[in-house]
Amino acid sequence: xxxxxKQQAHTYLTEAALINPGLWVPHCEYAAQAAYTIxxxxxxxxxxxxxxxxxxxxxGRRVGIIDLSHCYTGYxxxxxEGYPQIARICITHSFINKDTRGAEKNWDSDxxxxxxxxxxxxxxxxxxYDRLIQLCDAISVSSGYWLIEKRLLDVGIRRGVSDSSPDxxxxxxxxxxxxxxxxxxxxxxxxxxxxxxxxxxxxxxxxFINGRN
Length: 213
Ligand SMILES: [Fe+2]
What we know:
The model has no long low-confidence stretch (mean pLDDT 92). It contains 10 helices and 2 strands, in the order H-H-H-H-H-H-H-E-E-H-H-H. Helix 1 packs parallel to helix 3, helix 2 packs antiparallel against helix 3 and helix 7 (128-139) crosses helix 9. The chain is globular and about 50 Å long. The chain is mostly helical.
């Protein structure tokens, strides 16, 4: 795989954060850390590659505050930079099981870009990296890690739901179970602070913690 190294990946994210600062930046940093940690426990996955993919999966947000079309802007940017594997992750992280039903609702650029993306998805088979970053995206917020069910509800409230949402939620829960089975224990056991973040606990029992993407 031809990927940027960790330092190059951080440079991309830092530059993007100067153009479009926001909670999406720490979300990517947490997703990267989760990807590294989970990948380091699973045979056949390269933790450094997983880290870089996690860090750059939302790099399309560098262009400004946009919704689902960040998949396409990230895809194009990473292709132009010569990193097709990262470009691929920019798309696949948002389309669990390649389900693009309802995508028009949140698609905020030219519809022909959406069709290009759909065509791309028909040409690939998802691999373990695609699935890992989908999982890490689903558990990472700007303050750390959340129970997936809470994250799905948060995204649903902010971005709306469609007839296809229940199928997508089930697919994400199935994905988490698949990783649990591969690990032999819960993914959550690898994520520091998931209980505190999900339920707003704090180490001293006084400060309320809240975070969202
Ligand atoms: Fe993300």
